[in-house]
Specification:
By secondary structure, the chain is of the alpha+beta class. The chain has one domain: Sandwich (Immunoglobulin-like), CATH 2.60.40. The chain contains four helices and eleven strands, in the order αβαβαββαβββββββ. A four-stranded mixed sheet has the order 2-1-3-4, with helices on both faces. Helix 2 links the parallel strand 1 and strand 2 (55-61). Helix 1 (2-9) runs parallel beside helix 2. The longest helix has 14 residues, at 113-126. It is globular and about 50 Å long.
Length: 230
């Protein structure tokens, strides 16, 4: 539990006044697992990041640690595949948990608080080049964006559960109960965009869970726009 206590000692860093990006928040993807003993500090940091208005914090639970005694109840093989695709795009041979990815670009060990804050600051200063807007109409969401730089982009719709506590029965974290934040339940590509024409989409968004829309360069490249409806 020592790393977890060390991480909590840095939580005050997340309470500082946020730096507003010119266009859009920073998307932080945490690749984590309930079966990973090194992950609770990163899970706690993501919970603090999720409180900020200039961050979209998303927890993607992977399944490749399920064999060591505890099957992560939130794990999705698609999230493991997404993490592997990031590694391939970055020409990295292996994946690991906990890992945080900032705006599809910067990768860092998710339990290293100072590095997490450094990457966050870097991405806040860069901002996002495309202004994305969303409005909800009953069980649908309307998505608009002005023309941007020409390119090959994927428009992705993400849903998440804001918070859930889980008692871990076996494995490396056996005997502990952790509260998990912004647990991604679905991540789907809903459109391909060339960036040259204005974007206007109408997508289903059934249920009360928050909705996130992310526009990203194809091939797991840079995130160029993001917005969230909580």
């Amino acid at each position: 539990m020592r790393p977890f206590l060390i991480a909590l000692s840095f939580i005050g860093l997340f309470a500082t006044a946020p730096v507003q990006a010119q266009n859009g928040p920073v998307v932080v993807e945490l690749y984590t697992s309930q079966g990973c003993s090194a992950c609770p500090p990163a899970d706690a940091m993501l919970r603090e990041l999720a409180k900020r208005d200039d961050v979209i914090a998303l927890a993607l639970h992977v399944d490749y640690w399920d064999y060591i005694g505890w099957k992560d109840v939130f794990a999705n093989p698609a999230f493991s595949e997404r993490q592997h695709a990031y590694a391939e795009a970055a020409h990295v041979a292996t994946v690991y948990t906990p890992q945080m990815v900032f705006n599809g670009q910067d990768h860092v060990v998710g339990s290293r608080t100072m590095q997490v804050m450094d990457r966050l600051q870097t991405q806040l200063e860069k901002g996002l080049p495309v202004k994305l807007s969303m409005t909800r109409q009953e069980s649908r969401v309307l998505i608009t964006a002005p023309p941007g730089a020409p390119g090959d982009y994927v428009v992705q719709l993400v849903r998440y559960t804001p918070q859930q506590a889980v008692a871990i029965g076996r494995g490396e974290n056996a005997g502990n109960e952790f509260v998990y934040t912004n647990i991604v339940t679905s991540w789907s590509v809903i459109h391909r965009w060339d960036g040259q024409a204005a974007l206007a989409l109408d997508a289903p968004a059934v249920g009360p869970d928050p909705v996130v829309v992310i526009i990203q360069k194809a091939g797991h490249g840079r995130i160029v726009a993001a917005a969230e409806l909580r």
